[in-house]
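## Example record

The block below lists the input lines for one assembly entry, exactly as stored, with component labels intact.
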Amino acid sequence: MSGAGGLLPQGASYGGLVSTVADPLMLRPAGRRYWIAFGVTFVMTLGFVGCIAWLFIKGIGIFGNNTTIVWGFPIANYVWWVGIGNAGTLISSMLLLTRQPWRAAINRFAEAMTLFAVSIAGLFPILHLGRPYLAYWLAPYPNTMQLWPQWRSALVWDFWAILAYLLFSIMFFTLGLLPDLATLRDRAETRAGQVVYGALAMGWRGSARHWALHDSVYRAMAAMAVPLVVSVHSVVGMDFAAGLMPGWQESIFPPYFVVGALFSGFAMVVLLAALMRRGFGLESVLTTRHFESMAKVILAASIVMGLSYLTEWFMSWYAGERAERTFLIHQLTGDDAALYWSMLACNVLAPHVLWFTRARRSVAILIVVSLLVNVGMWMERILIIWDTLSHDYLPSMWRPWYATIWDWAVLAGSLGFFAFMFMCFARLLPVVAMHDLSRLLYRQRGGA
Amino acid sequence: MTDAPSLTRRQAALGLLASAVSLSACGKPAEEIVPYVEQPERIVPGVPLRFATSLALNGYGRGVIVSSIEGRPTKVEGNAGHPASLGSTDAFAEAAVLSLYDPDRSRAVREGTRIASWDGFLTALRPRLRRFEATGGEGLRLLTGHVTSPTLLRLMGQVQARYPAMRWHGYEPIGDSNARAGAVLAFGRPLASLAQLDRAVVVLALDADPLGPGPDQIRHARGFAAHRTARWENKAALSRFYAAEPVLTATGAKADHRLAATPTLVRDLAIALASRLGSGRPAPVLPPEAQRFLDAAAADLQSRPGEALVLVGEWQPPEVHALAHWINARLGAPVEHIEPVGPAEPPAPLDALIEALAAKQVDTLVVLGANPAYDASAGFAQALGGSGAFSVHFGPYHDETAALCRWHLPESHPLEDWGDLRATDGTASLAQPLILPLYNTRSAPWLLGALLGTDEATAHAAVRDTWAAQRPPETFEAWWRQVLHDGVVADSAAPRVTPPPSALPDLAPPVAPAELTLVLRPDPSVWDGCFANNAWLQECPKPLTRQVWGNAAMLSPEDARRRKLSNGDVVRLALGGRQIDAPVLVRPGTAPGVVALTLGYGRRRAGAIGDGLGADAYALRSPDAPWIMAGLTMEGTGGRTNLLFEQPDRRLEGEARALFPTVRADELARGESRPPVWPPSLNPDRVSDTHAWAMVIDTSLCIGCNACVIACQSENNVPVVGPDEVARGREMHWLRIDTYDLGPPEDPRPGFQPVPCMHCEHAPCEPVCPVEASIHDAEGLNVQVYNRCIGTRFCQANCPYKVRRFNWFGYADGQEYANQGAPVLAAQRNPEVTVRARGVMEKCTYCTQRISAARRSAEREGREIGAREVVTACQSACPSQAITFGDLKHPDSPITALRREPQHYALLGHLGTRPRTTYLAAVRNPNPAAEEGGS
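Predicted structure tokens for the full assembly:
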């Protein structure tokens, strides 16, 4: 479809490509900047653990939720993290299936991002429970109560969607990693490195047979990944859409959530790519061309998002239900209207700057847009919860909502934890798929 | 060593054996304990015993039946045989059981700040009594509240006889001095009048609130309901209420026509009405709106002779009361008159005591059931402090007055000792103890006995002596048992007297209207402040304003706009040199120029719950005009406080009016009887195999009094969360009374809609729960399985009625508010209802424990559950009987007919939830002649 021009450095060699990725890992010691960042994220992680401990000691009441707005930050965080987690596997599999050459440089850390984001997302539904120590009741296991989970509940679908997606993502990630692990094993200069990477490489020797099997399994898994990616966030959307509340009960929710996930996920990948590129000197393999492609996806997703909002408004009005209409008015003019309009500005307006080629090619602009998109998508998640719950059918129970310090602390802590895991990943595994780059080079040189 | 008796081997062995035995029984308490090897007579573990007793409000008795479970009183209900209860309760009676277990109750005799003993008190008292015997009691003063108890009156008579020079002073912060003085003006003597709302078809309430809190609320509510129960078959005339009042009351809310009138205008209306009825006095010029109101009301009143009634509130001056007596006589109004209930000779006023204290003429002061240091307007505390008198405070709390007195004696709770009381109509009832006093407390007859020189007087003996004196000894025992069983002394109501023809009072010249008038009212939560330490009442949303944990200065929207004030702005209210700071609450329906404040807040020594809440309105009160005070000044202080509400003030407009439909009486007459129709559904229809429990709430009858709210809290162990958690919107009440303003701010026309769980047949909460904690049972109840709940809160998120409540903290489970986690409060818990843990969802169960109890007894007796056998706590409490509960499958169930009424509707029925709790729309009966003037 699109050529591979501009994706690889001029005059690249196989050895050069591998060195670009592997050398920072194997040869260069981590710099001061790395250790400072590592320290900061480590402290944030400790803070996250501390918040969770306090949450378990004091109870869910430390959050700002109330009788009317029974869900708050934890659920918004959950939806947001799942959304981010969506993009990695999607990028990796969808772009593989559609043979996008620009996939090669970004798929590895996008997949890692998925793993970390989904793991964090999976924590939040547990943290938000009144009795988190009973979370395992969501799993169907033979028990003395002779009770099965309630299969009609979207939360049970959620449980399975997240679990399946997480397990699948781990397998997909590991499979993609095998050849690179073998490369690291071969280049490792310490005994420990050789043993650890060797064990993880599971005896990969790079034989033609290995490559053939790997290729077919990997493609088959990619084909399985796409519906999974769609399902996971559709199910998250159904958490709301299966409800009865104005602003939730909308059949547009599943696709709209998937696009939203793609949107925020790509924005996060752009941010991470910019960081990686700077931090590991990967300018030669993470090129402007990559950023441009991702910018186009963000722009497209933003248009779909805008269309979804329009559809929501239209349906709220067209359905003629009083609660739906007052909800819409509340959304556009109520207590949280400022938040709603900022959300629209971030999600619908800001990405339109990417119509300009120069903007798409400017990493700085892309970073700003991506940050805005991620903030906007988080606001969207929280507003889906706030607006609906604070303004549903009976005016007597309409309430405002205020976040507490713990709401913010847990959100910040989860970001810190995410960054911390990424810091570890960046020093332990190759952040770019070396074998995919080499394959790209091979193709570029005219190979099959 | 040699002194120690040496043990033989056998003794040593026995000793070892004994210690082994006692060690193996580790954990056995040191005291002797007796298990129920022989079960005490009547006590079956788990089966509550119910005793009739009486509780007082303002000194008047209300008969109640209290459930006691294994010796612990847990729940108060009405006594159908008692004329002031009629089987129902009010919020104060329901909450009495929490006061019994209040951890802040006074537990010890105190001399100053020191803990002392009862004997120590007697030792200190005796020499004084001996002196008084010599002097005839010169310098001995007794201060009480309003006393109706025949026993206390008898004992006080004896004390008076023993010390003829003793003076008895009476003080009740919410008294009836205006009504009394009005009766004197009209009839020449202080007759008490009892309005019979059940016989009135047209009622004009002039600043009167018969449906509001007070000792007669239940009786009036039942009377109101008698002519408001609009039913398909019942074609009897509906009553029509007119209300003119400065501040919105329950009566004004239920009225068909309401005029927001300043106190002066209320007086003018009374004069104009009298003039219309031929008083011959010149009618004042009324504003056009008031004139229209009066025209309609007067014509209506005159058209129903014998069934028309004019009521005047205690707050109005005596001359308006006298005018009302005259008007009622002209109308032949259904009002009965009796001699005042209480002492034959009214006690001396508090002012005289304050003067005597200031003049150091008081040697010994005994304060019995009064707290003048807090609730008397001024001077008492100062005078007492400087008097050097030997002062004794006898009361349940170490309160403001106790702190000033030399001795404080703890009084037993009414549920702990014997007593008797008279109701507003004079009916006597006995109070019997449900439990031994929890602490070393005694009751008033003991203290009066001590004054009479007997140290061991008991309340039991005193009460029996009172009643035995009036009966032949051979029948007394049987009579006594019967009265204890019934809770009420049969035929003891005061005889009705025919009043002399009422005279027209001389009217004082009208006072120049002041810019701002302060109107004081009893508080619907804490009354005069005596319930300030009751957490249930503090957290109970006040009718109409829905405010909790405090009071506020209520203003009309116009005044607030003009002075640029909004809810929560702190203003300084100054009147006659006295001033307080209070937050503003803008309440539509308040007459412009009126600032209304409720009494009972700003307590300084109420306890951990009641201290420091709200503004102390007593500080502004002047003794000569206790209720209406002109010449108030109000200015903003720039401060703000956060007023706490359980429902932000909401008007229903446009399509939202469908949430609270109202029907006009003439529309209703044309309506059709029809069963409810539900939208189609894919969900299976069969939801009940055996019974189909359902509830219908008649919103025409609901007066928003909160009796049901507290009854539910008491029955179902609903915890208190405290002001901070309310501020975060986390109240726990299972039953709330949604109050919507249906009209414009000038005429808000509020409607009350009690909202318990709807027990939807197609409940939105059920499919969303991932662990099946929210499920349907075989009787159609939507039940919540607490120990299965993991706290996802999806159920509440998906509940369109938002009736579920979540334990964000362990409100009843280790993280209680203030002192409400005190161990003694565990005794109040209903053992039939789980106390919920942190992190679980809870909600109204339709009192499933009561359904179970009925099912068990029916099964034991081999019969079906009766049509009216199951009574929920809210239903039982409701003074106007607005709540009906029953089985839709039972042929005789009253519920089926109610669901066919033309005004029947399901809240949000269009969502397809098929609620089992449904409503009857509020029926209004406006006067067609007054319609164009704004009903």
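The longest strand of chain B covers residues 60-69. Chain B has a mean pLDDT of 91.
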